[in-house]
Amino acid sequence: MDFTLSDEDRQLRDTVREFVEEVANPVWQQIEKDDRLPQAVIDRAKELGLFGLTIPPEYGGLGLSVVQKALVHEMLGRGPWGLASYVSVHTGIGCTGINLFGSKEQKERYLPKMASGEWLGCFGLTEPGAGSDAGNLQTRAERDGDQWVINGHKIFITNAPYAHHVLVFARAPKGISAFLVDTDTKGFQIGQVFDTLGHKGSAISELVFEDCRIPASNLVGEEGKGFDIAKRSLSEGRTMLSARSVGAAQKAMELAIEHGESRHTFGKALLDHQALAFRLAQMSARTEASRMLVYRCAWMLDQGSQAIRESSTAKFFCGEGLWQTVDDAIQMLGGYGYISHEYMIERIWRDARVVRVYDGSSEVQQILIAQRLRKGDVETHW
Length: 382
Ligand SMILES: Cc1cc2nc3c(=O)[nH]c(=O)nc-3n(C[C@H](O)[C@H](O)[C@H](O)COP(=O)(O)OP(=O)(O)OC[C@H]3O[C@@H](n4cnc5c(N)ncnc54)[C@H](O)[C@@H]3O)c2cc1C
Prior knowledge:
Bound molecules: flavin-adenine dinucleotide
CATH class of the largest domain: Mainly Alpha
Structural class: alpha+beta
Number of helices: 12
């Protein structure tokens, strides 16, 4: 088995790592204070092509393999999650539907401007009464001549306040369907913008549709097939979120090592106390195991497998593992770990909490894993 990365992969990973460590991390406190990503950070991400990660080269994107995208997301995970979320919602769940199911006309209209970062995308699935149980969504789309008329309400939609358009899921006569709605369309408006525990800089908000009329040609894929588009979009997203969790866990561990070497108690460095050295070893073992799950899953996706159980396993294990590792790191920092806006570990803790909740919570992942196991998908053959 060969785990070697190509020179190109290594260069990609190192470039994004340098961007995160030298451009984004130095301004993390400013991002927290303003709840806004500095334009210089967004511009640098655009220069690096990060807004076109998932978009094919013919539409101006980087056209990366899934393994390469995972490398990028692992590095983004080392930085402020508002930035990671801004980029990954746009390039992931914001793009996949158009990439895989969009018409030629939709691809030509949206993808080049999304790849350059000129147009920001978002993904509107969750509703006040339909989160984990997204299939119960109540937003409606009725056909009226050569238009669709959308009515309903979405909630917690990342990037929406800054977005040019949303891929929205609504119940049409033939079932749940996906539609592209430009945010300047009459009848569409942004509702409440929420203040969140972490993820500063990437706003989440409500979307309100009141007799919002869009051209019939804005239906993405076939009418009634929208839920498949949503599931497909979320499935690759899970692997990317797992990669981001690995990056954050690695960063938390490095902060713990730095503090554990320099801080002394009872006449020796913290890490000279065996109990704390053991804790560090556990952080490392968990993070390494998580990383292996991510890259095996990414590799399987590159081979054309849907990796359904594997991506849920990665999301569940990496999300829970990150939470434990950040908590261990805070424990290593003692009181310093609990100080707001001064030590990065506290920000990582706030950012990391949500990974167990969104894109399919840890409970939902366990339900999916158990369902697959009961259908006979009990072992990964690769
Ligand atoms: C920062 C952030 C960004 C988001 N971005 C987006 C976005 O861009 N687009 C979008 O569409 N949505 C987005 N969401 C919504 C997110 O996907 C939902 O919050 C998530 O799916 C959970 O839904 P819910 O909040 O309604 O919780 P609920 O579904 O009400 O669940 C509440 C709790 O009950 C548990 N639970 C539910 N059912 C079961 C069960 N059968 N068995 C065991 N436990 C169960 C859940 O795991 C959870 O812990 C975002 C949310 C956040 C916080």
